[in-house]
Every structure is written in C-alpha cells, then in structure tokens.
Amino acid sequence: MASPSKVLIVGGGGIGVIAALSLETNAQANVTIVLRSNYNTVVEKGYDIKSCDHGELKGWRPAQVINHVPDVSTRETPFDYIVIATKNVPSNNDSMADTISPAVTPEITTLVLIQNGLNVEMPYLARFPQNVILSGVSYAGSQEVQHGTIIHGSHDSLEIGAFRNWNIPNAQQMAVAKHFVSLYAASGKASCRFAPHVQHDRWKKLVYNATINPLCAITGLDSGSLRRAGPFVSKLLEDAMAEIISVAAAAGHIFSKELSQELLDLDPKEDRFEPSMLQDVKKLTWNKGNYIEYEYLVGEPLREGIRMNISMPTISVLYALCEAIQSKNNAKSLRIAF
C-alpha cells in the first residue's frame, strides 16, 4: 500500500477544516494544518464540527496542528501538496506566496488554491514556476463561527483543474490534478470533480460572487432580504450580473442567458443566507479583524473589463463602495487572521 500523501493546509477556517477532514477521512493523506488566531483553541480542545457530510465531531484535529509554515529543509520528506484555503485579503505581511515558500520543494510540491476570485493563481505562478498549480472552485457552505467551532451546512463540492504552466508538460499537470481529485473524493463524503476548464468555472461563480456577495456586504442584508428589497435592487443585480457575463464572454467563457436567474434561485428569497463578504463585515463590527476579499472578487473582473474596453458601470460602483468599506475596516483593524 502506498504511503499517505503529505498535505499542508494553510488556513484553518470553514473551508480549510472541511478540506482537512475530507482528505484525512480516507486515510490516504496525512494532513498538517497551519493556524494563527485559533491555534491555542484548537491545540487545547480541537475542532467542534457540525457537518452535513461528516456529521457531528467533538474535539477533532488533523494529524498535526502548527502555528507557522514549516521549513522543508528540516524535513526528511517534502510535502506532496500545499492547500491554500485562506481568503484573499490585504495584509501588512508578505504575500501568501512568500509566506509558504519555506514549505515548497521545487518541482515536487503541488500548490492547490481553494480560493474565490479571478487570477488568484498568478502570484504563485510567478513565485514557483517549476511547480504544478491546481485551481480549486469550492461550493461548500462552511464557516468558523467562533474559534474552533465549524458549521458546515451545504455539501462539500470541489472542482479542481490545473492552471496552465508552460514550464511543465500539460499531461503531467492533468495527471497531478486527477490524483488530487481521487484523494479528496476517496472517502465518499465529498464530491470532487476534475475540471479541465476550471477557469470557466471560476467565471461562473463570479457571476454570483462579484454581484450578490459585495451587495450584501454593502447593504448589510442577507441574500434573501436583498432580493426582497424591491425592483430597483433587482435591476441593480441584473445589471451587475450582465456585466460579468459580458466580460466572461469576451474572455472566451460563454454562459446562457438563464445563468443569472439560476444563480439567484440558489438562494431562495425566504432564506437568510449570509455570503462571505457580509460575514466578514459583521466580524469587523464585532472587532474580530476580518477584511473583505473584494479585490479578486470584484476588482479583477473589473480590471479585465477595462483591459478589453468593456463598460462596467455597475461593477465600478460596487468596487468603489467596497473600497470605502475596506478603508473603514483598515481604520478598525490592522491584523489579518488565517
């Protein structure tokens, strides 16, 4: 029997913990997780998890819990995979690509980015040109409601594809992606699909994440309340979604005209679902120190539109308002936690 894959997960919030749980459940992966703000709680008590896929677990921990990125020069064997499950938010510290560099073995370690937004892979490609980079689009609804407490309410569904690296044979990148998919899905608890056109999936998720997500953060409304707010808000949403779909099409990703309504229907008007950016705004209000990840969710699609001379007036306004929120947040907190 092959030895378990050695996996380092950076980011121990809702998504990172469920990823660790899915990988370790099948005994084919040995997971080390890097924590910061919740480190002491998890070391002392473990995670309390209520999961729609895994059930209720008390005091769960992966194989190793640490509070720093390890230096592989001190290890006998390198990490096979490093999974980045942090949010893309501003920090006073080095970029995440620089942060993880001590744990990366050139040509051996595969980087797996389970993060929202567009062009999230570029800093890693620039920093690690000889390593395979996998792009992950997650649809798991999971959050850490307080240190060490995870509520996972919607099925762990993950799409994985290789981010094209011209320094590495394409067949090798595809094989690595398929192997990670098999590791993640082996327990039968999670759905993990090989997505050869994963950037198409990123753009599709952006039709929601660049529109409803920031609007909920700006207004303080959950998704159901936002949709019930009246015809002018509905028109604003429609216009914003149409702008994202237009830029996606110019980038070669064509979506049906029904996509906007399909995505809206994922959050019924009766629900009180709080998208990630609204959760982070509320945490700032509670002095927990979270910024909103608007640059890769709203800013990058906007910059793509500008580059292609496509007018995006609605997205431009959303971006400006998110910038204002971030400016206010910056005055409240200078510390970012994993």
Automatic annotation (TrEMBL):
One of its GO terms (biological process) is pantothenate biosynthetic process. Residues 198-326 form the Ketopantoate reductase C-terminal domain. Keywords: NADP, Oxidoreductase. Its EC number is 1.1.1.169. Pfam families: ApbA, ApbA_C. NCBIfam families: apbA_panE. This is 2-dehydropantoate 2-reductase. It comes from Hortaea werneckii.
